[in-house]
């Protein structure tokens, strides 16, 4: 990430206008927004269907149909069927609900904990900074996937504990990021002016420093979204994900290994969905980083269409 300050787009521009300017800045930005919005909408529709007991998929993703087991992709089943005859397209759509929920919860919890720890450490410094940073170093000392697996196993090895485990290994990175931004911002004139006017520490952190940190956090969360989904899929691949028959992309890939290489479509569906969604978030993160960086000369700086 650039050393220069990241700034948000002008407030006068509406949210839709800002999104459009971001999308039209480059073809990759446009593609990333399309992919991410499609993934989020799919997960939202699947969640609504699950909550209100409505079938929003072409077929019931849970109901076996042994007469149609292991069918290759066709017009009736575009992504084929699995060993129980369940439609793979329906299971991939339903799986988006689980996968996206894990990603959102992990990023929300990890960023909240990391943001709080980083801002407090960067603002107060001294002993508080040393304690919080040594705690983050303790988590960073272990390979993240091994630590996440160990935490998940210790807590029971299911989708809820996987979410907790991933949040536990991701928050130190956000703490480090927030601390660095706050320590750099403390040397700026507007921060010293606020301190000179008698702002309390809480007001300084919430009203003065938090708006400076948030753009960096937004970019990092977008970049990490795909990585979180891949990490969750990796843990599910180890048997630490959703319990059958709940579809989850990583679990579906693991279950498909038994039938390879003949039933290639069992991996192509969830694997393709996972790869495309992760790619979309990564592209969006790269685009946001360039767009919000003044040194890139982007729309956020000039206020002109990209």
Summarize the structure.
It contains 11 helices and no strands. With 306 residues, the chain is an all-alpha fold. The protein has one domain (21-69, 76-302): MetI-like fold (Orthogonal Bundle), CATH 1.10.3720.10.
List the helices and strands and how they pair.
Blueprint: H1 15-23, H2 27-51, H3 88-124, H4 126-140, H5 144-155, H6 159-185, H7 189-196, H8 201-237, H9 249-256, H10 265-291, H11 299-302
Helix pairs in contact: 2-3, 2-10, 3-4, 3-6, 3-8, 3-10, 4-6, 5-6, 6-8, 8-9, 8-10, 9-10
Polypeptide structure, described:
This protein is mostly helical. The chain has a single domain, classed as Orthogonal Bundle (MetI-like fold). It is 68% helix and 0% strand. The protein contains eleven helices and no strands. The protein has helices spanning 15-23, 27-51, 88-124, 126-140, 144-155, 159-185, 189-196, 201-237, 249-256, 265-291, 299-302. Helix 4 (126-140) crosses helix 6 (159-185). The longest helix has 37 residues, at 88-124.
User: How many domain regions?
Assistant: 1
The count of strands amounts to 0
Stretches with pLDDT under 50, minimum 5 residues: 1-9, 296-306
CATH architecture descriptor text: Orthogonal Bundle
Radius of gyration: 22 Å
Q: What is the CATH C level class, in words?
A: Mainly Alpha
- Sheet of most strands: none
| Termini Cα gap | 20 Å
Which percent range fits the helix content? 55-70%
Total number of helices: 11
Q: What is the N-to-C succession of helices and strands? A: HHHHHHHHHHH
CATH topology: MetI-like fold
CATH superfamily: MetI-like
Structural class: mainly alpha
